[in-house]
Amino acid sequence: MAGIGFELRKILERNNYTSTLQAYFYAGIISSGPWVLSIVSMLLVGIISIKRFSDTQELSYFLVTVTYLMAGSLVMTGGTQLLLTRFIADRMYEKRNDLILPNTMGALALTAVIAALAAGPAVCLLFPDKNLYFRLLTFTAFVILNCLWLAVIFLSGLKAYNRILLTMAIGYTTVVILSALLSNYQAEGLMLAFVVGHALILFAFMNEIFRAFPGDKLLSFDFLKRCNIHPSLFFIGLAFYLGIWSDKFIFWFNPITSEATAGYLRSSVIYDIPIFLAYLTIIPGMAVFLVRFETDFAENYSRFYDAIREHQPLKTIQYNKQLMVDSVRQGILEILKIQSLTVILLFVWTRELLSWLGISYYYETLLQVDMVGVGIQVIMLAVMNVLFYLDRRKEALQLSLVFLGSNTLFTLASQKTNPAFFGYGFVIAVTLTTIIGLLMISRILRDLEYETFMLRN
Amino acid sequence: MDKQAQITLLLEGTYPYVRGGVSSWVHQIIQGMPEFSFAVIFIGSCPEDYGKMLYEFPDNVVHFECHYLQASWQMKPPARVAENKEAYAKSRKLHDLFQVPKAKLPNKLVADVLSSLGEKKGITHENFLYSRCSWDNISRAYERYSQDPSFLNYFWTVRSMHAPLFMLTEVARTVPLTPVIHSISTGYAGLLGAMIKNRSPNSYYLLSEHGIYSKERKIDLAQASWISDGELAHAEGVIMENGFLRDMWIRFFEVLSQLTYQATDKIFSLYEGNQLRQINDGADFSKTAVIANGISLERYKDALSKRPPGIPMVIGLIGRVVPIKDIKTFIRTIHRVRDDIPEIEGWIIGPEEEDPEYASECHQLTETLGLKDTVKFLGFQNVPEILPKLGLMALTSISEAQPLVILEAYAAGVPCVCTDVGSCREMVEGGQEPGDRELGPSGAIVNMADPESAARECVRLLGNSELWHQQQQAAIQRVKQFYTEEKMFQRYRDLYRDSLAIAEEAQEWPA
Question: Which of A11, A172, A187, B445 has a C-alpha 20 to 30 A away from that of B222?
């Protein structure tokens, strides 16, 4: 999200109540846009097509397959996403923008091949009850999604957030409309709508990338060279995304909490609906996160390093560090405040909201637990963000592994107890990881001058 | 090679890789005293700065090591390391004393700190670079003492300054111990001596300074870029324009001298002026003494016998054509002398390549003053051959130590007119040693950059044959009695013998 701070700062500088609200609103959309859009669109697809289907079997088949497509593609590209984000930032810093286009193509080609190799056997084996069309469409969807996540990374480098959002909005609207039109064709029809909508987004993004980045070469694999990248980023991204999905995977694969819904693909009705709904509640927290960390923290961060580079006295360097520490502290406090407020309000209205959405109040407790969990996850994201800014890859890797490990461990443990504890595994893991992360950055920030001068040169 | 030596010579940036006064002196000493065996430890900046060895070692050099300061700037990858709080506390105490000029450094403290350097349980290069204690010391010192706002500059200056110490401490740890240590300068070599002496307290530590190290470094720092490698490259510009950092370096070199003076048992200089300077910089008066350089009279015997009768109306200056020799004052002096002695000639004998711009200015001045046929630039010449053709030697330098050309002129029977720099006055009017002053002046001392009075003295001497001959005799006698190579050898021979005796009485040394 580099560069977003500048946009936000422009809005904030107008310095009145509306402009502040506007900045947070904007930040909320930017930071939560893509996944809110995808969750909301799937909800809409569900609501619209549920009336068309005689039994909900086909709808579930589609929705579960899409969930697996999302989870699979995000985990598979998670490592590459981080790796490339840094690769692009470094090249832009070197003013080698001409390297970005050929490497985008290289990365997309490589990802597409790997995704195809993984998806090919998978679609053959997993859907014994489906025809070739469905398998082909699913296969295509997986390859497109993998490419899409990477294309977003390259586009973010352009800071064209508005355009990214607009494109995605158009794409998802297409998905929703087409699915309404094609729902007569069962899961195949819905999958076709899904593929067409995403293909549209991907092509729009590619067009954007071609227009924005110069380059006389079309294909390059510089991003694979050891000297251009930090391989640890790959493992950080992989572990982090695996961590985010590990509790879901566990619930899907435990025969007691799940059932085979789409071919051999299993899903956990009791677990999935609340957690996906819960993710919609972190929009305010994400907005604060973006405003605080991409403006205040980012500015104080560069002030600190500028003070060193510009030969300032030690006192000034220390003062700037203190500002940086304060902005972290304040940012986290604000996320905590806004998320608590959101969660408390939603706690009161949980049942009403569920009935309004046509979902059983049976989910109330789990949804509430998940809302706490994902709220804390915003702070965890903020912590990871600070670690990336300070280029602490070692700590970031440790933290992602802690998250993956604890989410796996505590989710398994929660399944051993009774269903009242479902969801607590995730909450405990996120809380534990966040506390460890906060201790990490507090130590790092305390020793920052010492480590900057003595250990990093 | 590689037998146990008796005397370790510590040489910084000189013999056997660099030509010059000090190097030939060292070679002279080693060659002249085959009865002693020497170990030569050379300390240079980096291998690329030096070419092939310029001297062939005599047989009595039994051990040779080269070490380069630049190697110490290659750092290991950063890592958190263990640290010794106590060692750092002591170092901090010592550094607080360094800040006070002329403060007496407690021997125990210095010894403790020096022996903690490079020790696993003390201050290693690694934990100097990476430890928390080290950081605390540096940032505290910055807050207390720095007058330069840039912490970055201060930080890197401190790092570059200290890096060589860890290399030296490694050398001190591994070098074979000998009964006598003899350093030919203070600075890094002198400090190395102090470290070796710290490891081997029964070794007898001698110091012979030709120039004064801290003063020379001061001139270097004021003039130009002696720093040109590694991390220091970026610091170069900074130091030049930055008074505080330059002072920090100067203070650093002064402290090196101070530590050397404190560790040594005897300190020698070439003449009284330098002796006073050493005392002023912290050398204990009772340790100091003067041993003047000497020349071989044998080489100039012919020069003396070949002299034509009468006084040749030629004034010579033997030296490089560079500003420090103030050639222009010499030219103006000749211009003035010509008014009284029209047939006078001024010969400038020495190479002109070092500072072509200055040389061409000198040529121009010669033409402007209409001295084209009077002043001659002869370039490099064989000194014993040219000396008999001179009636006088004039030295207009603005800085000298103990110029050998005066002794050479004396040996060839040529009186000298000199500026009052270095040991010139002692050499012309006579020094402290009994009988020297009684010989009378062997020339005249004049003020710096004063062609008027220089010319007056030249005319007075050249125009008075009786006075001239009297001074010529004084010159010959002076060099014979006080400035011969034999005399210098004798002093050092006695010194080595006595030092070895003291060290050998204190402990058994491997043969």
Answer: B445
- Interface confidence (ipTM) of the complex: 0.72
User: In chain A, which residue's Cα lies nearest the Cα of B140?
Assistant: A314
Backbone angles phi, psi at A293, to 5 degrees: -85, -25
A372-393: per-residue pLDDT in tens?
A: 999 999 999 899 989 988 888 8
Q: Give tens-digit pLDDT for B12-52.
A: 988 888 877 788 889 989 998 999 999 999 999 888 888 88
From the list A311, A314, A454, the residue facing B143 with the nearest CB is A314
Residue B347 identity (one-letter amino acid): W
Smallest CA–CA distance from A306 into chain B, residue: B152
Which one of A306, A308, A311, A446 makes the best mutation probe of the B interface by having the most chain B beta carbons within 10 Å? A311
Look at B150 and A453 and tell me if their CB atoms are within 8 Å.
Answer: no
Q: In what order do the strands lie in the sheet with B7-12?
A: B61-68, B38-44, B7-12, B180-183, B204-209, B266-269, B288-290
CA distance B58 to B265: 27
| HSE-CB of A141 using CA atoms within 13 angstroms | 28
Judging contacts by C-beta atoms under 8 Å, the chain B residues touching residue A456 are 78
CB contact under 8 A, A453 and B155: yes
Contact B18, B210 (CB under 8 A): no
Cα A172 to Cα B210: distance, rounded to the nearest angstrom: 86
In chain B, the residue whose alpha carbon lies closest to the alpha carbon of A456 is B78
> Residues of B with CB below 8 A from A457's CB?
78
Write out chain A residues lying below 8 Å of B143, CB-based.
314-315
C-beta atoms surrounding A386 within 10 Å? 26
Q: Which of B78, B153, B155 lies at the smallest CB-CB distance from A456?
A: B78
Q: What dihedral angle (degrees, nearest 10) is formed by the CA atoms of B124, B129, B132, B137?
A: 90
pLDDT tens for A400-437 read 999 999 999 999 998 888 777 888 999 999 999 999 99
CB contact under 8 A, A314 and B135: no
Secondary structure (3-state) at B326: coil
| DSSP state string for B153-170 | HHHHHHHHHHHHHHHHHH
Residues 6+ apart with CB under 8 A from B201: none
Cα→Cα distances A2→A85, A155, A296, Å: 10, 11, 13
Locate all alpha helices (DSSP H) within B146-271, ordered by sequence.
151-174, 187-199, 213-223, 232-241, 243-263
Searching chain A, which residue's CA lies closest to the CA of residue B238? A311
Chain-chain contact of B149 with A311 (C-beta, under 8 angstroms): yes
Which residues of A, range 293-332, sit inside 8 Å of B by Cβ?
A: 308-309, 311-315, 317
What is the Cα–Cα distance from A229 to A222, expressed in whole angstroms?
Answer: 9
Determine phi and psi for A101, rounding to 5 degrees: -60, -55
Q: Which residues pair with B289 in a beta bridge?
A: B268
Q: Given the DSSP bridges, would you call strands A265-267 and A259-262 parallel, antiparallel or unpaired?
A: antiparallel
Prediction pTM value: 0.75
Nearest-angstrom CA–CA distance, B364 and A158: 66
Give me the DSSP letters along B345-363.
EEEEES---S-HHHHHHHH
Q: Does the CB of A448 have a partner CB in chain B at under 8 Å?
A: no
- Cross-strand pairs, A277: none
Q: Is A449 on the interface with B (CB under 8 A)?
A: yes
Q: Which of A71, A106, A110, A414 is nearest to A257 (CA)?
A: A414
* H or E element that contains A210: helix A186-212
d(CA A72, CA A118): 10
* 3-state SS assignment for residue A262: strand
B78 to chain A: closest CA residue:
A455
Asked if B409 contacts B416 with a C-beta cutoff of 8 angstroms, the reply is: yes
- Take residue A161 and report the two structure tokens written for it: 């957030």
Q: Is residue B231 classed as helix, strand or coil in its secondary structure? A: coil
Q: Which two tokens stand for residue B487?
A: 């005399």
